[in-house]
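Postdoc handover notes: sequence design on the structure in folder B. Input tokens:
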């Protein structure tokens, strides 16, 4: 009886050791990905502790990069006060360490967490723009330099995340980029929010032209877009319909040529264009309002698959297109519409940028 218990104990230890070593050997399959391209996944601020799930998703989708957020606590939508959440940062650093061990590139993103996460970053509108930039540099970015970028080989740093109400401040952003360059030698990313234009309203086009002509965009290394373009108004558009809609969106008959505008952004700034957050929810109408994971309650893995297929078919050959980051990976919520819900969609993502 004692021998049997001992044998069971030994087997249990061996199984645990084998499982641990297998998890520890997860590696980014970087040799299969075209040089210079980014295949990334975003982790949410509250899931940076899910290291094993992040690594599993990296392997399954053949990613070479992970976007790791650092939580920046902001009391309300008009506040210029901010502080890095040190407990969350500790978890993020553990994830960064595990990723770098496995040759997976890291993009660090100071992520605005407004009013306990109840308000989106696009709504942030500080009442004092001078205080905002001072605190963004000296409280947030300086902390990241001191505790992360000076200690680890960080591929990229997002200096902005969809700050629609602050992007007008060109002089401040020029100064911020200079400040970052002095202390960080990796890639600087400026992330803007997606936009819309409509053939029947020239004012949208004027806003777009103003957006892409911000002088500071020429000073960064990569122009990143939080990419939730409203492409198709159909409940279940086919692959061909989605592909056509990327050149003339059908939502409200806007006729927005997303592909042409991405190229225009590249030509204006001289910088590669990157989708810093992108996905298609597995819901009917998921390509009408992709920014809404619950746009309808009708599940549709075909909408997700056709969206990913069309975007890949159109953008993969474009030399100016740097890559994409899936929103999101590392989540154990298997029913969420932003999970990749079919083997076919898995294969589309896995094969993107394969040599």
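Designed sequence:
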């Amino acid at each position: 009886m004692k021998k049997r218990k001992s044998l069971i104990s030994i087997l249990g230890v061996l199984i645990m050791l084998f499982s641990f070593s297998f998890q520890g050997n997860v590696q980014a399959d970087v040799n299969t990905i075209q040089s210079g391209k980014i295949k990334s996944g975003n982790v949410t601020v509250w899931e940076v502790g899910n290291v094993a799930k992040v690594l599993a998703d990296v392997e399954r989708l053949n990613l070479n990069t992970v976007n790791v957020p650092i939580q920046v606590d902001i009391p309300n939508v008009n506040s210029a006060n901010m502080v890095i959440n040190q407990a969350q940062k500790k978890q993020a650093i553990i994830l960064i360490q595990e990723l770098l061990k496995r040759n997976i590139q890291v993009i660090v993103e100071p992520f605005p967490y407004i009013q306990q996460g109840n308000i989106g970053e696009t709504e942030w509108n500080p009442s004092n723009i001078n205080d905002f930039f001072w605190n963004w540099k000296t409280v947030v970015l300086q902390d990241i330099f001191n505790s992360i970028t000076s200690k680890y080989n960080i591929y990229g740093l997002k200096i902005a995340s969809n700050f629609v109400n602050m992007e007008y401040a060109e002089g401040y952003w020029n100064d911020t980029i200079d400040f970052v360059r002095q202390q960080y030698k990796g890639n600087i990313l400026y992330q803007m929010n997606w936009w819309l234009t409509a053939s029947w309203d020239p004012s949208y086009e004027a806003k777009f032209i103003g957006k892409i002509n911000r002088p500071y965009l020429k000073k960064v290394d990569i122009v990143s877009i939080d990419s939730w373009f409203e492409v198709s108004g159909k409940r279940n558009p086919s692959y061909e319909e989605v592909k056509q809609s990327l050149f003339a969106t059908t939502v409200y008959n806007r006729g927005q040529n997303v592909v042409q505008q991405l190229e225009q952004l590249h030509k204006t700034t001289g910088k590669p264009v990157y989708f810093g957050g992108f996905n298609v929810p597995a819901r009917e109408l998921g390509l009408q309002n992709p920014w809404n994971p619950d746009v309808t309650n009708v599940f549709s893995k075909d909408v997700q698959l056709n969206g990913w297929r069309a975007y890949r078919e159109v953008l993969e050959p474009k030399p100016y297109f740097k890559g994409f980051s899936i929103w999101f990976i590392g989540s154990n919520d298997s029913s969420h519409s932003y999970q990749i819900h079919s083997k076919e969609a898995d294969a589309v993502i896995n094969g993107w940028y394969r040599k």
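Context for whoever picks this up: The chain has one domain: 38-351. Don't rerun without checking with the PI first.
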